[in-house]
């Protein structure tokens, strides 16, 4: 039997016409997915957690382990517990400001610890974070906000 990769590349040569070969591609029916979870890259299954749920589990399992280190901010570092506390505080603030799931928030921050915490907080709330380049001109900033 042929593998699915070989079948997708299979072409049938039907004869010679003058000096070139003519070929036709055989249409192959691909299997249809019946589940939303599908993987081939590894035998290890994907996690069934959101980013926020995974951070909660890590903070519960490894509260004193180092999570992030920001050398450019004077060797600022977070443990999983301290990072979760900051993320939860930001997520609560976003909810207090009226953000709901599927809302968009534009964030104009350089690559700092606050930007990283904001990414996780937006993920926990369900808000779509739109990162705006810190070096963006005002004209392009207005275009990004209006689109």
- Count the strands? 6
Shape: extended
Strand-residue proportion: 15-25%
Per CATH, what is the topology of one domain?
Rossmann fold
Radius of gyration: 25 Å
- Taking the alpha carbons of the first and last residues, their distance comes to 51 Å
- In the predicted model, the low-confidence regions spanning at least 5 consecutive residues are 1-19
Q: Give, in spatial order, the strands making up the sheet with the most strands.
A: 1-2
Work out the helix count: 5
Query: Residue share in helices?
Result: 25-40%
Biggest pleated-sheet summary: 2 strands, antiparallel
Order of helices and strands: HEEHEEHEHEH
Mean pLDDT: 77
The chain-level structural class is alpha+beta
In CATH, the architecture of one domain is 3-Layer(aba) Sandwich
CATH class of one domain: Alpha Beta
What do you see in this structure?
It is a single chain. Helices cover 38% and strands 20% of the residues. With 147 residues, it is α+β, with helices and mostly antiparallel strands. The chain has a domain of 96 residues: 3-Layer(aba) Sandwich (Rossmann fold). It starts with a helix and ends with a helix.
């Amino acid at each position: 039997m042929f593998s699915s990769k070989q079948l997708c590349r299979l072409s049938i040569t039907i004869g010679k016409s003058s000096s070139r070969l003519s070929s036709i591609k055989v249409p192959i029916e691909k299997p249809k997915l019946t589940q939303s979870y599908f993987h081939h890259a590894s035998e290890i299954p994907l996690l069934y957690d959101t980013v926020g749920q995974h951070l909660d589990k890590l903070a519960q399992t490894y509260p004193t382990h180092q999570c992030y280190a920001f050398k450019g901010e004077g060797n600022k570092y977070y443990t999983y517990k301290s990072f979760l506390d900051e993320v939860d505080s930001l997520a609560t603030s976003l909810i207090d400001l009226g953000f709901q799931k599927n809302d968009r928030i534009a964030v104009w921050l350089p690559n700092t610890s606050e930007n990283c915490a904001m990414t996780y907080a937006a993920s926990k709330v369900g808000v779509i974070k739109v990162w705006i380049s810190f070096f963006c001109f005002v004209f392009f900033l207005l275009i990004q906000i209006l689109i």
